[in-house]
Specification:
binds alpha-D-glucopyranose, 23 strands, binds calcium ion, alpha/beta
């Protein structure tokens, strides 16, 4: 299992063992004090004018990321793919899609990152492959042969019914005809993403071989896609329908699927542990008792994302039925996630990713959106216990796009949710407003580098239209403005790495403060020798907050000043403070 090594490649100085034990007895890992960034390559930077971001574009932005303070970079998929789901449908796990570049570009990216003391993560998409993968092609030709067993194939039922009534994530039944045969194959996502049969040891061997091949190349590790889907509840059966289509959300089946740990433990042992590689799991709906197995010292993964606030309010009926979120809900989600993990392991904290709308548009009411409120959200997230993952453009405050027509949408999931909303009785305008709130394309618009045409992303036509607000929200302007959100993120990251505070910010306990005070989100970060207090006024009206002790130092403030009163502070419109207490 996991090697008991405290010091590994890339690690610098560790604290003496005694101090470690005082904080908690968690095993120290090389990545604990790092800050990660997710790149969406297709929308990052285009160097050849074809409107598609590429690896050379990513390489050209490494210095920008280094300057921000980033250590670990997760690349959304760049493997050979028909891009039906933007690369989450892989046709060859050993090849780079020519639209993104070549294997030489990839090798150079890894090498250039290393030069800068940075690590590259790839996306590991192994719940499914593409229907254009050779395995699937061969399964179609010979369903009862070796490759038929790489997938979940079922005979068609004589009465015309499907083997199960599970609904795929992107709409419609999970069963589709296996071309040229009288069989059906299972796809949890799009029909161009056939699920791989993890019960077959040959499939698992192929996956491990591929992971190790990339790790040998010097990759830092992987972000692991949709991993909770690899275990199905067998034998197949129906679940209660939850929409008029007679189908049942696939999560009902997943609740019943037992024994995923055997697969994940085997994968960790056969791959990541041998390289001390970093892995972050896209894990949903884990049970509290499973957390140590997932992300404890010898966990299947290094860490997993906290999705509590991203799934808050979601409905089995669809996006149109989602419940809005208040600051109190946000606070409750974050504190709940922090509490359930405690110091068992490390969560990875996000405000957004490529599957979500922009966090500032989601967690801050529209009329309150400002530089100060964006900074507040940044500080609240980056001061949490766990590993910060910043998503491309988050550091400059990129916002949701307004979709004027469904023709402006590319994402398959959004196209489905639009139809679902219309079917449920929404008008076209209502359906457009629903997808404007939740569309994954909100996060996939081109990165806004400058105030020049197409936001400086491409000299051609971008594959997805840029957000019109690039004239006011862009990297170039923010780099020139010392008060910008970019520089605020930079400051938060620098604070996290400052030797004076690092121990507390990385390993300190998180204890909520005045949790009952409405629209105040506040917490301590505490070690035996140091107490930091994060105070955020999650609203426009000012609010008075009692201080639990004397202030030694002001570490972060999104305003030029602070209004103190005896034993308290008056926080302004979305003011956030990080204080060191005496
Ligand atoms: C994950 C990815 C998402 C993709 C899905 C299927 O949720 O983050 O983008 O559509 O898996 O691979
Ligand atoms: Ca390009």
């Amino acid at each position: 299992m996991f090697q008991n090594k405290r010091i590994k490649k890339g690690t610098k100085t560790w604290l003496p063992a005694k101090t470690i034990m005082e904080v908690n007895d968690m095993k120290r890992k090389w990545w604990h004090d790092k800050v990660a960034y997710q790149i969406y390559p297709k929308s990052c930077y285009d160097t050849n004018g074809d409107g598609i971001g590429d690896l050379r574009g990513v390489i050209s932005k490494l210095d920008y990321l280094k300057d921000l303070g980033i250590d670990i970079i997760w690349l959304s998929p760049i493997y050979k793919s028909p891009l039906a789901d933007q690369g989450y449908d892989i046709a060859d796990y050993y090849a780079i899609d020519p639209r993104f570049g070549t294997m030489e570009d990839m090798d150079r990216l890894i090498a250039e990152a290393k030069k800068r003391d940075m690590y590259i993560l790839m996306d590991l998409v192994v719940n499914h492959c593409s229907n254009e993968h050779e395995w699937f092609q061969r399964a179609c030709k010979d369903p009862s042969g070796k490759y038929g067993n790489f997938f979940y194939l079922e005979d068609k039922r004589q009465d015309g019914s499907l083997p199960t009534n599970w609904r795929s994530y992107f709409g419609g039944p999970v069963w589709e005809e296996l071309p040229g045969t009288d069989k059906l194959y299972l796809h949890s996502f799009h029909k161009k993403q056939p699920d791989l049969n993890w019960e077959n040891p040959e499939v698992r061997e192929e996956v491990y071989k591929n992971i190790n091949w990339w790790l040998e190349k010097g990759l830092g590790g992987f972000r692991i896609d949709a991993i909770i889907n690899i275990k199905k509840a067998l034998p197949l059966k129906n679940y209660p329908a939850d929409r008029a289509d007679g189908l049942s959300t696939i999560s009902n089946m997943l609740k019943d699927a037992k024994g995923i740990g055997a697969f994940l433990g085997e994968m960790q042992e056969r791959t990541f542990s041998k390289y001390d590689a970093f892995s972050v799991g896209e894990v949903f709906n884990e049970k509290p008792e499973e957390i140590p197995a997932f992300i404890g010292d010898n966990g299947y993964f290094s860490t997993m994302f906290d999705f509590e606030e991203t799934i808050f309010g979601s409905s089995d009926k669809g996006w149109y039925d989602a419940k809005p979120m208040t600051p109190e809900d946000y606070k409750a989600c974050i504190f709940h996630a922090q509490k359930k993990v405690g110091d068992t392991g490390f969560l990875s904290n996000i405000i957004e990713n490529h599957d979500e709308p922009r966090g500032v548009s989601r967690y801050i009411p529209k009329e309150d959106l400002s530089l100060e409120s964006k900074k507040m959200l940044a500080a609240l997230s980056l001061m949490l216990r766990g590993l910060p993952f910043i998503y491309q453009g988050q550091e400059i405050g990129m916002e949701n796009k307004v979709f004027h027509s469904i023709d402006e949408v590319n994402d398959i999931s959004t196209l489905d949710e639009y139809k679902v909303a219309l079917k449920a009785g929404c008008s076209v305008d209502e359906a457009l407003s629903v997808i404007s709130r939740f569309s994954r394309d909100n996060a996939r618009t081109p990165m806004q580098w400058s105030n020049t045409p197409h936001a400086g992303f491409t000299t051609g036509e971008p594959w997805l239209k840029e957000n019109e607000n690039y004239t006011t929200i862009n990297v170039e302007d923010e780099l020139a403005d010392p008060n910008s959100l970019f520089h605020f993120y930079q400051k938060l990251i620098a604070l996290r790495k400052n030797p004076k505070y690092k121990e507390t910010i990385v390993y300190g306990k998180l204890i909520p403060y005045l949790q009952e005070q409405k629209n105040l989100m506040a917490y301590y970060r505490k070690t035996e020798n140091q107490t930091l207090l994060v105070l955020a006024n999650y609203q426009k009206p000012e609010q008075k907050v009692f201080l639990p002790g004397k202030v030694k130092e002001i570490l972060i403030n999104n305003y030029p000043d602070i209004v103190w009163e005896e034993n308290s502070v008056i926080l302004k419109n979305y003011q956030v403070l990080v204080l060191e207490l005496l």
